[in-house]
Write a structure and sequence with these properties.
By secondary structure, the chain is of the alpha+beta class. Helix content is 16%, strand content 24%. Strands 7, 8, 9, 10, 13, 14, 15, 16 and 17 form a nine-stranded mixed sheet that branches. It has a four-stranded antiparallel sheet with strand order 3-2-5-6, with no helix packed on it. α1 packs across α2. It is elongated, with a radius of gyration of 21 Å. The N and C termini lie far apart (65 Å).
Length: 308
């Protein structure tokens, strides 16, 4: 039996991610490509622990000290790809961000034609943590589908269904209102598989022609306009992410964000078919079924989603 203590420090990919250089997965690819040196030696495997005494170079440049964790809300417009670069040459969200933004990474994705709330961060470890299914945060979407559905049509989504061999967990679905040939539906899910809502609706016979993410866990889209970015206050961010106050040396200690207990299918007060607010204290005001998301801070009167 091996009783030897684990080596001191953190994995090199984790250190690169915390420095805001890349996500952990991207950092591993950089290492495998031979772009990283530790104490003068090029490494090709992420299976290495490093400490503050180690000298790390990336592309020949010293690794910068980790910056304080920051988090932004971004209203992604339709027509942008959520990636650093696109093989087809399409415009990405990073092409559209304000020029004074630091290097950031998206937490999760929205596909080309989807719009709404994207979380952005400068910290690769936070990105990875919030993307894990075990975090259990509810993501809510306003979805416009073609057709005249009845509430009972969505029971397969509430129970969970399998599409082309892929299992989707139960969703929280509310039929909001009919608008001509289309209907507006609010959908909540805790996974975020590729095109999950579109594929699930198509399996029921409904085509999605607009999809807007209005919240990600406690963070709300509010009245942020398309293309705009709003930074979350650090105190709010620390409370919602379970982070401790910044240490004197400028680093940030992290706690694992508490897993939110699933309340799928249990109606909350004043919001039929949606989970109670208690497991996820919103960072701003909430949203009313059938209306646009209300503002993240302050007042404002919600109105109906508008055609574009």
């Amino acid at each position: 039996m091996n009783n030897s203590a684990p080596p001191p420090g953190d994995r090199i990919a984790k250190v690169l991610a915390r420095a805001g250089l890349a996500s952990r997965r991207e950092a591993e690819r950089m290492i495998e490509a031979g772009r990283v040196q530790v104490n003068g030696k090029k490494i090709d495997s992420p299976a290495l622990n490093v400490t503050a005494s180690d000298r790390i170079l990336v592309d020949g440049q010293p690794l910068k000290e980790p910056e304080p964790v920051r988090l932004w809300l971004y209203h992604k417009p339709p027509g942008l790809v959520t990636s650093n670069r696109d093989e087809q040459g399409r415009r990405t969200i990073f092409d559209a961000l304000p020029e004074d933004m630091p290097r950031v990474m998206s937490i999760g994705r929205l596909d080309l034609n989807s719009e709404g709330l994207l979380l952005l961060t400068n910290d690769g470890a936070i990105k990875r943590q919030l993307e894990l299914p075990s975090t259990g945060w509810l993501r809510r979407y306003r979805v416009r589908i073609n057709g005249r559905p009845k509430d009972e049509d969505f029971e397969p989504l509430r129970k969970g269904l399998t599409v082309e061999g892929e299992r989707f967990l139960p969703m929280v679905v509310t039929l909001d209102r009919q608008q001509g040939a289309n209907a507006w539906v609010t959908v909540g899910l805790r996974e975020g598989k590729n095109r999950e809502i579109r594929r699930a609706m198509e399996d029921l016979g409904f085509a999605v022609n607009r999809l807007i993410r209005i919240s990600y866990g406690p963070f709300q889209l509010g009245q942020i306009k398309a293309g705009e970015v709003e930074e979350i206050r650090r105190r709010v961010m620390r409370e919602q992410l379970g982070l401790e106050a910044e240490a004197p040396e400028g680093t940030t200690k992290r706690k694992t964000p508490a897993r939110r207990r699933s309340t799928a299918g249990k109606p909350g007060p004043g919001r039929p078919g949606l989970p109670k607010a208690a497991p996820e204290k919103p960072a701003g005001t909430g949203n009313k079924p059938g209306g646009r998301p209300s503002p993240a801070r302050g007042g404002g009167k919600p109105d109906r989603p508008r055609r574009k």
